[in-house]
Protein: Helix-turn-helix transcriptional regulator
Amino acid sequence: MVLNPEKLTYYERKYERNPLEDITKFLSNKWTLHILRDLFLGKSHFNEFKVNRPSLDNKALSRCLKTMQDNDLIYKINDGDDPKNTQYFLTKKGQSLNKVFYELLLFALDNDVDNEYYSDYAKKELKEMYKEILKIK
Structure:
């Protein structure tokens, strides 16, 4: 299907917003996708999101987590007075990104440069593993 630019312009005028632009703008934050991935993989504490990310400072991480909360992708639970006990979890809305992440995984595996990095067996194994992790039916 070829997209008719005139039709797109009509819809942009009609709705004054482009939902694809909205979501790409939100997800283009440098750390959002990394944190979402970490949450899907079971990380939940502030410092866990910083592991192997030396350029992610506390201020940037706090800002990103706050934006994700404001957009109802995550929620936090404070367990007591110690901020180290604060945990973050995906909301139902955040969990609904599981299919997007799975499609990104498929794209990455299917477009492996020269098909050299992952064997066919590894690709199959990764697809199955992430299907389970992301709760893909």
Observations:
- The CA atoms of residues 34 and 54 lie 13 Å apart.
- The longest strand covers residues 74-77.
- The beta strands are 74-77, 87-90.
- The radius of gyration is 18 Å.
